[in-house]
Design brief:
27% helix, Rossmann fold, globular, 260 residues, 11 strands, nine-stranded mixed sheet, alpha/beta
Length: 260
Amino acid sequence: MDIVVCVKRVPLTEEVDLVIDGQKKGIKKDQLAFVLNDWDNYAIEEAVLLTEKHGGTVTAITVGNEDDEEVLRRCLAMGADRAIRIEAGDTSRFDSFGISKMLSRVVKDLPFDLVFTGVLADDDYCGMVGMMVAEQLGITHANMVTAIEIEDGKVRTTSELEGGLGEVSLIELPALLAIQTGINEPRYVSILGIRKAAKKELKVMDLSELGMSDEELSPMAIIDEVYLPPETEGAQILAGDPDKIASDFLEILTKKGVME
């Protein structure tokens, strides 16, 4: 069971005052700490668990610069067998489509039965790369996966749906699965794991090695401007007994044109 896991290094933005950069195309990240994307953390753990049970290898892959190797080292410390970094310069010039094309170009030349991605990336919340990679590889896929079982050369998945529902599918291999948080409990990275990771392969591939032109990777979607939401007035608190609150609420909705 050979599994490729696509991962991303993202900034920690919780409890931080975000500042828009000078070009108004994103946020300033120079003072932010970076970590392995939360969804990808679960994807790596699930890949390692499956290979521990069924045998095989785990390959972690990312698109980024030298700083992004820290998340690959973490993947190796968690149990991945090798890692690949695609050096593509300033990745902000690519959208999800371009990133997915680079990943799929590398993945197609690797041995794999399964490809894992996280459902989302914690920085842009686009949630598109996984499905795009699957389409470009021409393989089946499932999204929001919360459980995986290998059965006779196929994979049985449970996917999270709206309203607390789940969907069970039996999928032919090879396949791509977008992993949802909560599918497992990611392991603690030990000092021994970090030491072992230093001896594992981390390959760097330049974008020129992929034979892809700038035109081929040009973004399909362009960010026009990023801005903070405008400050608004505080919430209106309705007081009184339930009948009065209900009456006042309906009156407010009527005045705002929500109800007639």
